[in-house]
C-alpha cells in the first residue's frame, strides 16, 4: 500500500473502464410512507470490481489469499441511489471493510437502510399493488470510465424478513445506458424493481366494513317515515360520519391528483338530497296543488284511478245540486201553502211544517240541524194554542191578514238565510274533503318515491359492495396471473 492512491481509478490502461458489478440483498421492507410516497428498505448493497493495483502472489506472502482492509484505504466507486429520498450522507451506511482477493478482486458489501421515492397508486385501495424501483449508478464516472453490471444472482432474498403490511410479490432488475443533457458520454445504471401488495385483513376491519355499515345506515334513511322528522338528521349524521372517516383515511393517502381511491361518499350525499326531495313532496299537500299527470304516469298510477276519482268528484257535485234543489222546492211549497192559509184555516199548522220538512231533509242527507227555527216554532205553537181557545168564526179582521203576510215574509227570509248557510257549509265541507284528498295523495306519492329510492340505493349499495369486495380483488388477481413474474431475473 506504499505507492497506492485511493483517488485514482485502479486500471493500468486509462482508456479501459473499471467493471463494477452490483447486487442487492433485500432483507426487509421496513415501511411504505404513502403520504410522502417513500419506500424504506433494509438492504445489503453488494459491489464487486477488480483493482489491478491490489494483486499479489500468495506464495510470496506466506499463502495469504484474502485481506480485509478498511474501505477508506482503497479506491471506491461512487455508486449512489439516484431516486434517493434521504440526505446523501453516510449516516445510515456502515463503513464495512472491503474483502480483497490476491487476484485483485474487491468485494464490498454495505448494509444500509434506503429511502427511495416510489409513485403510489391508491386507485384500488386497500387492494392496491405498488411497484417501486431502486436505481443505482455512478455519479461522476461515465460509461467509459466505470461500467456498471449485475452480479450473478443480482437480487438475493434468502435473508428476507416478511413485512406485516406488505407482501413481496416479485423482484427484477434492468441495466440501462442513458445519455443525460449535461454530458455527451453514456452513463450506465442498474435498476432493481420491487413489486409489493398490501395485506387487506387489517383494512377490512378498519376501512371496508365501516364503509359497508355506513352504507347500510344510508339505506335506513329511506326506511324512516317522514312524520318522524328525523330523516334529514339521520342523513346528515351519516354524512358527517363518512366525512370524519374519509379524513382519517386521507391522512395516510398521498396528496396527489393522479390517483384517487374508489371509496367515496357520493352515495350518502345523494341520499340526503333525495331525502329533502321526498320531504318536499310529503309536505306539499297543504299547498292544495294537485299531483301533475306526468308524475302520476311516472309512478305508474293507473289512469283508471284518475278517471274514477274525477267521476267521483263530478258525482258529488251532482248530488249537491240535487240536494239544493230539494231544499229549495220544499221551502217554496211550504211558503205557497202558507200564503193561501186564509182560504183554509185548518192548514195554519203547515207554518210549522216548513221548518219540519227542512229538518227532515237535513236528517235524510246526514247534515247537522239548524236551531235558528226554534223561536218561530215556539211562536207558532203559542198562537195555535191561543187560537184553539178562541171561538172559530168565518170572518177575519184586516189586522189578521196583514199579520199573516208579515209572518210569511219573515219566514221566507229566514228560510233563504238557512238555505244560504247550508250552501256555505256544504261548500266548505267539500273544500275540506278536497284538501284532505290532495294531502293524502301527495303523502302517498312521497311514500312511493321513498320506497323506489330505497330499492335503487339498495341495488347501488349491493353493486358497490360486491364490486369492492369481490370483483375488484378477482380482477386484480387475474391481472396478476397474466403479469409475468421475473423472480429476480433481468428485464429486457
Can you walk through the features of this model?
α1 runs parallel beside α3 and α3 packs antiparallel against α8 (398-482). 17% of the residues are buried. A hairpin with a 6-residue loop joins β9 and β10 (186-198). The chain has a six-stranded mixed sheet, with no helix packed on it. A four-stranded antiparallel sheet has the order 4-7-10-9, with no helix packed on it. 45% of the residues lie in helices and 21% in strands. The chain has 492 residues and is α+β, with helices and mostly antiparallel strands.
Would you summarize the structure shown here?
By secondary structure, the chain is of the alpha+beta class. 45% of the residues lie in helices and 21% in strands.
Q: Largest sheet at a glance?
A: 6 strands, mixed
Backbone CA Rg? 51 Å
SSE ordering: EEEEEEEEEEHHHHHHHH
Q: What is the multimeric organization of the chains shown?
A: single chain
The number of distinct helices, counting runs of at least 4 residues, comes to: 8
Distance between the termini: 42 Å
The average pLDDT score comes to 75
Strand content: 15-25%
Count the E strands: 10
Q: What structural class do the secondary elements suggest?
A: alpha+beta
Q: How would you describe the shape?
A: rod-shaped
Q: Which consecutive residue ranges, at least 5 long each, have pLDDT under 50?
A: 313-320, 338-398
Q: Helix proportion of residues, in percent? A: 40-55%
The strand order across the widest sheet is 3-5-6-2-1-8
